[in-house]
Write a structure and sequence with these properties.
By secondary structure, the chain is mostly helical. The chain has helices at about 1-25, 30-65, 70-85, 90-100, 100-120, and strands at about 130, 170. It has 2 domains: about 1-125, no CATH class; about 125-170, no CATH class. A two-stranded antiparallel sheet has the order 1-2. Helix 1 (about 1-25) packs across helix 2 (about 30-65) and helix 4 (about 90-100) packs across helix 5.
Amino acid sequence: MGHRVRVLAALWVVAEVVVLVLVSSWIGVGWTLLAALGTTALGWALLARQGTRALAELRERARERRPPGRALGDAGLIAAGGLLMVLPGFIGDVVGLLCLLPPTRFLVRGLLARAVVSRLPVELRGPVRVRSARAEWARYPGGPPGAGPRASGSHASGLGRPLVIEGEVVRDEPVRDDRA
């Protein structure tokens, strides 16, 4: 795994250098440096603005004792996008901009989700269907348990406490045991 990361990082650096050379030959070295500094400044500004929003959302969820959910993923994407925008290079700026802007963040989130799911073992992939039955109220033959002869109202008609019916998780495909 570490070898793949090093190879991808090296390819990324080579691609960034090629793009910088192409852009500088197209618009000139001075304008290229100015554009690189401009995208870095834009990255800092967007990181500050979007990062503040993401942290406020995380604080609000923690205060209300709600799970972080998508807000935690957004905070991670904002941090990665800000880092990519601050580092020199136009490819990283484009990817970082996709991570920082709320309208395009869902694209990156979807791509990352697909990449993570594709690496999961088959046994852990969804969808998992749950077979269950639900009963609002159970009827007891002589009324609810413990209701004596003085039971009245809905209890006298045989309606009692809610009945819990346990279910089981069912998988369509057979689970393989690869330990052998």
